[in-house]
Amino acid sequence: MGAKVDTLRIASFNTHWGVTLAGLPFDVVEACTALNPQVLVLQESWRPNGEPGYAAEIAMRLGMTLHELPIMSDRNSARPRGLALPPGEVGDCGLAVLTSLPVVDRANINLGHAPGDAIKERFGLALTVSLPSGSRATIAGVHASHRLWGSLPQLRRLHHAVNDIGGPSAIVGDCNMWGPPIKSVLRGRRRAVKGRTWPSARPHSQIDHIWIDQYWRVLSSSVEPDVGSDHRPITAEIQLLEINP
């Protein structure tokens, strides 16, 4: 019998706080459940009143564990225009990484501040997971700065931190930058998904990415339809190549 071959289905989605550009709620849970991922990276994941938000419901629905990293309060000026804040406690918004695989390590990676960004500090959230064969892989979720070119130093910093962890890896999320400039700072990585993701109604740019290293091959990938956010979700199924000792 041959050795087990590890495949991994990854999805990424900037949920825009769970509202449309008009500030109306859309069904984030249904949209994410339909992606059927093993690892799901959410950006702009909102928890109103600081209580469990839709990411927790998605995790429960898909039988995943949820790891969250709040980046700002929901009083921050970076929140969507027209967002109706509920009365009560201040909520938060940030990254969420959900997985159905066992998590063996977690790292919060400080990416610093981009000049002019309303968010004081951005972070990457890296989970090292155990694959069915026993191999390990690190998936690092990110929402880089939207300030022009501000994302590149942050992505470079995340890239080096993930490489320091070692082993197969992917950098996943809203990179707020096109593929060619990112490729210049994520040396040795390539895009698992190619296609326009933003703005969702009539996309003209790809700023949402899954950047994989040399340990993977891409089996399939897609940019998903518009489901309500200003970004479109992306998915990729990748396969781990044999790693020589």
The CATH homologous superfamily name equals Endonuclease/exonuclease/phosphatase
Strand count, sense and barrel status of the largest sheet are:
6 strands, mixed
H/E element string? Answer: EHEHEEEEEHEHEEEE
Outline: globular
Helical amount among residues, as a percent range?
10-25%
* CATH fold group: Deoxyribonuclease I, Chain A
Reported CATH architecture = 4-Layer Sandwich
Strand content: 35-45%
Estimate the mean pLDDT confidence. Answer: 95
- Mind telling me the C-alpha Rg? 17 Å
Overall number of structural domains: 1
Number of helices: 4
The chain-level structural class is: alpha+beta
Low-confidence stretches: none
Strand order, main sheet: write it out. 3-4-2-1-12-11
CATH class: Alpha Beta
Number of strands: 12
Annotation keywords:
15% helix; globular; six-stranded mixed beta sheet; 245 residues; Deoxyribonuclease I, Chain A
Q: How would you describe this protein?
A:
The chain is of the alpha+beta class and 245 residues long. Helix content is 15%, strand content 36%. The chain has helices at 28-33, 54-62, 151-165, 179-185, and strands spanning 7-14, 39-47, 65-73, 92-99, 103-112, 122-130, 136-143, 169-174, 190-191, 208-212, 216-223, 234-240. A 6-stranded mixed sheet has the order 3-4-2-1-12-11, covered by helices on one side. Strands 5-6-7-8-10-9 form a 6-stranded mixed sheet, with helices on one face. The radius of gyration is 17 Å and the shape is globular. The chain starts with 6 loop residues before the first strand and ends in a 5-residue tail after the last strand.
